Structures are given as structure tokens and as C-alpha cells.
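Trying the structure run again after the queue cleared.
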Amino acid sequence: MVQTLLPRDAHNTSIQTMAPVASQARSFTGTTARTTQDFETGVKVVELRPTMACFIKFGDGTVEATSSDFFLLASERVTYHIGTHTRVAVIQDTTGGTLHITELA
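Done. C-alpha cells:
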């Protein structure tokens, strides 16, 4: 499998090759919470950045996150290919916060 690398600028920083088309923010606590609306049509990639450490899980309008799901550090920025999933659920690690979601196309 060939890995495609993003172009880099003069400071050797990856250049984003996708455009943001929508954004959502979801507050989270010790109880699972999911985004209140589906991702925009055509979106296959989302960038996530939580304000506090949390666990996430992708799915549909019934998805629920648990402490056994994907762990994100506070302020970590990660990008995921969502496939056919339409929502993301989130639950805190130890402290509540906000999950910022940028939908890319």
C-alpha cells in the first residue's frame, strides 16, 4: 500500500488539502452524549479537538461512548475518516468539557 503524504510549507508543516464545510460543538460529562445532527452530506473526514480528555465512538443516531472507546487527550487534534457513520458520541475521562468537530470535504 502506498501512503499519500500531504504537501508541506516552508516550515515543514502539513498543508490542509480539505476544506471545512460545517462545524459542531458538543459538551460532554460523565454521561454519554452524541452530536445532535448528522454530519453534512458528502463529508467523509472529521477533525476532532476536545477541551478535556475524553472517549469517542462513531456511529448513527443511537451511538453511545464508553470508557472502552477511543481515547483523546485534552487539546489533541485528530482527523478521522468516518466511512458511513453519521454522528460521534463522547464521554469524559475525568472532567467534562467540549468536543469541537470540524467536518471536512
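The chain has a mean pLDDT of 92. Worth checking whether this holds up in the mutant runs.
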